[in-house]
Design goal:
Mean pLDDT: 90
Structural class: alpha+beta
Strand content: 25-35%
Low-confidence stretches: none
Helix content: 25-40%
Length: 682
């Protein structure tokens, strides 16, 4: 049994509320999900009764303001009506307040495969008594009414959906509860908008102070069109800064790809609304971080400890995008000047959006103001073509696991050996349009290190008496170590010898150990504000991102190199402790890397008892002397307040230094020739 609060983003994939935020009063890019969970313990009876008790007896929400929904069943998928939930609710609430919900509203599943089950939601009606007398709340449930909202969802995990779409009963049944903290505050504080609660009012007041504009609460009706635009923009800014600030504090920096692009998109939407409707032409959203920190740091201390980083990153992103907006306005002006007639090509608008990051809604707004219209159909066509290309590149279909040895008996032995006898315990085929057909192979034990902690996964072979299968990568998913191969053995039940490519493993281990030493060198030379923000360890080089607020000087870089090389020359032995309780490890001085996930027991790696003691699951050298020479290749900026170092060790370091010497000799020769030419001409 667990009860918790989670910070949840709803801005991509199946659950995407981004474009609704600001226009209504109850959707958010980030919200707090209060939850209680049962893993094979209690089920529907306890979950339903406890939800009702908490809402009506502890929080004292009037029972007459609540409605509940139950899954109506789906004969096409052989999923029955949730009779048990219906009967349980009948004991607590009048039947006319129980609503049958369809698969869209009352059946939870995250993807095409995996655990799923029926839901039972609780909705609260926060309208005035006069409004309730005119229209029944029951008719407004799940119909996007801003004061009749879902407040609680009990998901009953009963089934597992297989690759062919069929459902099977789970061997143990679970409860997954979600209750929106912001909506709960709205109900308990007697408000009709989440933004009128004290979750948001301090942020809104700060925006008012900065912009000189006023926000009218949801209690005030009939605002002018101009005031409504101001209200929407202020709601967007107040909401988005929470999502962006917490994401950065949790280690996700804005970028042009993946999760980083989602964060950048949220922030840019806020900047755009401020630019257009709040008349803010200079960065200002970063000033809200201090307000957020004062509000939330008691419960989420990371927003306080990372406040400087978050503030600097947001300020730099604002400044950068405001320059983009300025550039985009000039480009749009050129497009208008080159256009015959009043319709602007959707393809041109998409180019502004896709290549230059210029928001399409801002393009449409400016065009309307200038008497032009946008070819929206052309823009949508270009957008869909891009999405189709992207989807086709990443589309993956996955078969169910074929289980050869029941149970999760897998064991990792890779710290002590690089080859051992194994049996295949399960296999699965993955068909990706990007990578083609791959096979995921799980072994009963394995010496292969799976990608994690910045270190790439091992490569190697599975060798039997009759054949050799190449393992091209190793990853970890759902606590299973997956060995990726382009072909399956002819006899999957045979015994194999799993052999790691030790040349590649050794090179990765050297780079990983050097990364630990460099991390401590940076903290020693630059200060303890330095924290890891990302890393890559592979056989060829190491890359390390860290918090620091200025470009490192040549003297500082040299000092870091000297620090690491001094530790290498001392040939310090690796001290490794496994299965240590995490709190004990932290109490003994081990450094936990920000953003990494750790279990109840951890592995402690000591490269230097005086400096480098870290929690780490990666592979390392036996003593620091095995690393060889250490050289920094480059130092650069990744984002505001985040720097990046790329470095090499051993033979790669020697080669880099030799190439640098040759380059310097060539430059000296060119300079001497130029000087001779000048002297001759004089």
């Amino acid at each position: 049994r667990i009860a918790d609060t989670q910070k949840c983003l709803r801005v991509s994939g199946k659950h995407n509320d981004l474009e609704d935020v600001g226009f209504d009063t109850y959707h958010h890019t980030m919200f707090e999900m209060l939850g209680n969970w049962s893993f094979g313990d209690y089920f529907k009876k306890e979950a339903i009764n406890w939800a009702w008790e908490l809402l009506t007896e502890v929080y004292k929400i009037p029972k007459e303001n609540l409605y509940v929904s139950v899954f109506e069943g789906n004969p096409d998928e052989n999923v029955p009506f949730d009779q048990e939930a219906w009967d349980l609710w009948k004991e607590l609430i009048d039947e006319d307040r129980i609503i049958l919900g369809n698969k869209k509203d009352n059946f939870w599943e995250m993807g095409d495969q995996g655990p799923c089950g029926p839901c039972s939601e609780i909705h609260v009606d926060l309208r005035s008594e006069a409004e309730k007398a005119l229209v029944s709340g029951k008719s407004l449930v799940n119909n996007d009414h801003p004061q009749v909202v879902e407040i609680w969802n009990n998901v009953f995990m009963e089934f597992n959906r297989k690759a062919d779409g069929s459902l099977e009963k789970l061997p143990a049944q679970h409860v997954d509860t979600g209750m929106g903290f912001e909506r709960l505050c709205m109900a308990l504080q007697g408000k009709t908008s989440n933004y009128d609660t004290d979750v948001f009012t301090p942020l809104i007041e700060k925006v008012e102070q900065i912009t000189g504009l006023k926000y009218t609460s949801n209690e005030i009706q009939n605002s002018s069109e101009e005031q409504n635009k101001t209200n929407i923009a202020i709601r967007v800014v107040a909401d988005h800064v929470r999502a962006v600030a917490f994401a950065i504090a949790d280690g996700q920096l804005p970028s042009n790809t993946g999760a980083g692009y989602v964060i950048r998109r949220i922030l840019r939407r806020a900047i755009r609304y401020g630019f257009t409707f709040l008349n803010t032409k200079e960065p200002f959203i970063y000033e809200l971080v201090a307000v957020l920190s004062n509000q939330m740091s008691e419960f989420f201390p990371e927003i306080k400890s990372q406040q400087t980083l978050v503030t600097n990153v947001i300020r730099e992103e604002e400044a950068s995008f405001l320059r983009t907006l300025d550039q985009g306005l000039q480009l749009l002006e050129n497009v208008m000047n080159q256009t015959t007639g009043t319709e602007i090509s959707g393809e041109k608008a998409f180019e502004l959006y896709d290549t230059f990051g210029f928001p399409i809604d801002l393009t449409a707004l400016i065009l309307r103001e200038r008497g032009y219209q946008l070819d929206e159909a052309g823009f949508e066509k270009a957008m869909q073509e891009q999405k189709s290309r992207s989807r086709a590149a990443s589309e993956v279909s996955t078969e169910d696991w074929s289980v050869l040895i029941p149970g999760n008996v897998e064991k990792f032995v890779g710290y002590d050996q690089t080859e051992n006898e194994v049996k295949i315990s399960r296999i699965r085929k993955v068909d990706s349009k990007k990578d083609g057909v791959l096979y995921q192979i799980v072994l009963d034990s394995t010496p292969f290190y799976p990608e994690g902690g910045g270190q790439v996964g091992d490569k190697g072979t599975l060798v039997s008496a009759n054949e050799t299968i190449e393992i091209i990568d190793t990853k970890k998913e759902n606590n299973l170590i997956l060995h990726l191969a382009k072909q399956l053995p002819e006899n999957v039940t045979a015994s194999f010898v799993a052999k790691v490519n030790t040349d590649l493993r050794t090179l990765s281990s050297r780079n990983h150990s050097a990364t630990h030493l460099m991390h401590q060198a940076l903290r020693s030379i630059l200060g303890t504000h330095v924290e890891q923000k990302g890393s890559l360890v592979n056989p060829n080089y190491l890359r390390f991102d860290f918090s620091h607020f200025s470009k490192m000087t040549d003297e500082e870089l040299e000092a870091v190199e000297n620090f690491v090389n001094a530790r290498i020359q001392e040939q310090l032995p690796l001290i490794e402790r496994r299965s240590i309780p995490i709190q004990q490890a932290l109490d003994e001085g081990a450094m936990a890397l920000f953003g990494e996930k750790y279990g109840d027991t951890v592995r402690v790696v000591v490269m230097d008892p005086n400096y480098s003691i870290e929690l780490c699951g990666g592979t390392h050298v036996g003593h620091t002397g095995e690393i060889g020479h250490f050289v920094i290749k480059a130092e650069s900026s990744v984002a505001a307040g985040v720097r990046r170092i790329e470095a090499v060790v051993g033979q790669a370091a020697a080669q880099f230094q030799e190439e640098a010497k040759e380059k310097l000799k060539k430059q000296i020769t060119q300079l001497e020739e130029a000087n001779a030419l000048i002297a001759t001409s004089l």
